Amino acid sequence: MTTLTKTEGEKAPTGPEAFLSVRDLKVRFSTEDGIVKAVDGLSFDVERGKTLGIVGESGSGKSVTNLTVLGLHNPKSTTVEGEIVLDGQELVTATEREMEKIRGNKAAMIFQDPLTALSPYYTVGRQIAEPYMKHTGASKKEARQRTIEMLAKVGIPQPQTRVDDYPHQFSGGMRQRAMIAMALVCDPDLLIADEPTTALDVTVQAQILDLLKDLQQEFGSAIVFITHDLGVISDMADDLLVMYSGRAVERGTVREVLRNPQHPYTWGLLSSMPRLGGDTEQALTPIPGSPPSLLNPPSGCPFHPRCAFTGEVTGSRCSEERPALGEGRASACHLTAEQKQTIFIDKIQPRLR
Amino acid sequence: MLQFLIRRLIGAVVIMFLIGAFTFFLFYTIPQDFAQLACGKNCTPENIAVIRENLGLDKPITAQFWEFMGGIVSGRDFPQGHCSAPCLGLSFSSGEFVWDSIIDRFPLTLSLTAGGLVIFLVIGLGSGLIAAWKRGTMVDKLVSGASMVLSSFQIYFLGPIVLGIFVYSSGWMDNPKYVPITENPVGWAVGLLIPWAVMATIFTAQYTRMARSTMIEQLSEEHVRTARAKGMRQRYVFFRYAWRGSLIPIVTIIGMDLSALLSGAVVTEFTFDLPGLGRLAVQSSLTKDLPLTMGVMLFGAFFILILNIIVDLAYALIDPRVRLS
Amino acid sequence: MSDNLTLPAQQGATGTSAETLLEVEGLTKHFPIYGGFPIKRKVGAVQAVDGIDLTVGVGESVGLVGESGCGKSTTGRLITRLLEPTAGKITYQGQDITHASRRQLAPVRSEIQMIFQDPYSSLNPRQTVGTIIKSPMEVNGINPEGGREKKVRELLELVGLNPEHYNRFPHEFSGGQRQRIGVARALALNPKLIVADEPVSALDVSIQAQVVNLLQKVQDELGIAFLFIAHDLAIVRHFSQRVAVMYLGKVVEVGDRDSIYNRPRHPYTHALLSAVPEVAVDDEADDKERIRLAGDVPSPIHPPSGCRFRTRCWKAQDKCASEEPPLIQISGNREGHLTACHFPEEPTTEAREEDVVMDPALKALEDSAADEPATKD
Q1: Which string of DSSP letters, residue by residue, matches C187-225?
Q2: Which stretches make up the ABC transporter domain (chain C) (predicted)?
Q3: How much is the pTM?
Q4: Were both Cys, which of A137, A344, B65, C155 would link to C184 (CB 3.0–4.6 Å)?
Q5: For the segment C170-195, what is each residue's pLDDT rounded down to a tens digit?
Q6: Global ipTM
Q7: Residue A210 is nearest to which of C206, C233, C292, comparing CB atoms?
Q8: Under an 8 A CB cutoff, do A286 and C284 touch?
Q9: Which of A165, A187, A209 is the last residue before a domain boundary?
Q10: Which chains have at least 3 CB atom pairs separated by less than 8 Å from chain A?
Q11: What angle (nearest 5°) sits at the alpha carbon of residue B266, between those of residues B265 and B271?
Q12: Do A203 and C280 touch (CB under 8 A)?
């Protein structure tokens, strides 16, 4: 199994057995308008104790991928092909009962909006204790003790009394802390965080991100961190996967991808966002057009209708041939390695100052 | 919570009063001599004058109104005898106390409602839940289709058909009749079986469709997905998380249906020729029997208001957000 | 702080532009809360905006930043008079419009336009794009040269949409395009001031830049002043010449872009800037200060006494609870840079000797991690 890192002085991690390995994942929904190819041939690995960031815009397939990992998609309207292997266990073919044993136990999930993701009808304590009782067989009393302990750990003041509160009695940041406590209550090996701070204010976001990092140190979980925010991912992840139109277009360590990006879409993302230290006189460089429809994705490279560099590729390969994403540090683009490097240094890097 | 209850009860009394006043004064806009009505066919002017005095119709309208309202609280004396509280007056047409007429009819209406309710809640909600659980399968399509067809039926259409099949042509059952449950529980149930079944059929369809659609909506809620992401069993998620959220709209509709049924299921009663509150109400208004009409209306309004309060209390039980705000 | 200069707020706030277009003094909006038994009465108020001063010069772009509940959106709605102010004064081109009636307001309304956050819900789905952009002209009885339709087509072209799409409906457009329609509608009356309330935060990253560039073009070419309300500090910095930072209904710091972003004095501004997650395109990002506040913003129903930030501030002392700090030019600040703080910070965003970590959970986890390096892998 090849890991995400290699070359350029980055040390290859030891024990390269991936904890979560996704191979050629294809997820399709049948809708009234036709088949939506939400994920179209995606592969990635996550190692124990490491954080993989998945970045992409709406409709890139990043959330669908991770719902599929835990089998939370609607089985009736969705077809899933490919392989998802978690700690040696194949999940695509697993039964609902087998998945129930994994969810919340070996692999847990944190969602974007903690207000709607927590049930308004039950106390925070009950919602945290539930999976603990189910997966560990603990008694009500033990589970309550554990819940209070977890609430304290994630920084809820007076956890002994707040455990009996309902989610609407918590502030936004506290709700997300409770959500984290719920996800970590069974000490999962894999934590999937789907835009966990998007609904929060920036100062609260900073608290939650640091909390997640510190808790990862303590619990040693692998994290898959999904976001649209490159700044957040830069702070959180070890490895990075950039998704576009249901596919991975670039992969590498965070350092590699953000400091030396090699795909025109990643260039576009980086140069379209202003930075706090950036030059305010320089106009932003947006990506023209809009993200493609997943019902009817463009032929060849899905990014080619918005790409400024298709002229550099000989013939009409960009619109005819789908570029493959190689193993390890790679980008799915028909430009040659030299072209990418030259374009990045000459045209892109000056914009990022 | 107690404060809430007190406030709601005070509100209910005010609304009852307003309903009473509205009905009362509306009735007096009808150009009709009530004494003439109460007198019957062979009337002499002297008779009418006596009746007028007996019924208090010779007094000003407002005085009559206050007398009526006072009677509800503390009872009233009529030449026919004392009418104890809650006194709703004396029926013009029958000469009986209105309260007695209502209480006479009410057990039938209550029986009709209670039996129908049990049947349509159990079957309606049950089949709705099954359809939601098996969403998209043949079972779901069958249940949804059947409820669609049934909900377009009406009691006055389905009732005669059922009567025709089970009573008139085959003779398997007797015509529906009311036997008090205290006298003969089996007879009570058998006598009302056909009206229950017909009434329940039509309501069931409505509850099936509602239970199915609210459950499907709830199942797509994010917190339901979170519960699944925690590894909770599908059945547990279905009943503990999704069902809990579906209860609010269901309780709302039950409250509305129940209060409508308790104040008289007019069509059902006429279809099966059962002497319930609904028929009393219709008769009273046809004969322009003011005290009886007012009595039935206030009686119905009372149930609507009480059930509203109960429904609100149920909301608070179901949803802690209601409880605390 | 005895050496504070006590300049009155308005005097220093004039910023870059010479001529003042809009001036706001002591602007206040309290939303009453009703309750009680048995008779409902006012039992409190959400102090959404509580006495803010702000000026916008002709053609100037002023940014308004802050977290949810700080009152920035309410401020925008007060200035466009979509909400009625509780107190304070709004002066537009020398005319007091604080409580102006509909008729008095009519000429001003066309000059102050608003762009909303959600391009999906702020456009009527049953009207064509042409009708949507045309209607402000119809309402205000404006007949541009060559007719309204010609003007609409020009506007569509200006905002980067195809004029041929005049008869299409909003749902036929993507999110970014819909926001362009919103911009075109705002421009239809040749406004002098546009209040843009989170105009790009509902859009995808790659689309945000398109709209920001469009707004910038509009500002440059048409000389329109902007009040740019957003929570994204980087976008506000990119767009605005002057920036006001709001916290719980108050402006805590205001100044030119460079002062706010590179020489902030208010602890809250420091905390905000340090919390912004930044893409590390090179190594310089590592020496940013790290401040982690505890908890969330307090309720605007019962804001803290004195300085509203004191409950989350690492420098708070008794004085902060008893005395509200005035918004003034404190010593060491450039002209026009006003800060409302008794114990201001050093004017830098460089990393401190020791991080400020107020959050108890973070502190506990980090202390234990420092004591014994994590053994678990």
Answers
A1: HTT--SEEEEESTTTTS-HHHHHHHHHHHHHHHHHH--E
A2: 22-273
A3: 0.86
A4: C155
A5: 888 888 889 999 999 999 989 999 99
A6: 0.86
A7: C292
A8: no
A9: A187
A10: B, C
A11: 105
A12: no
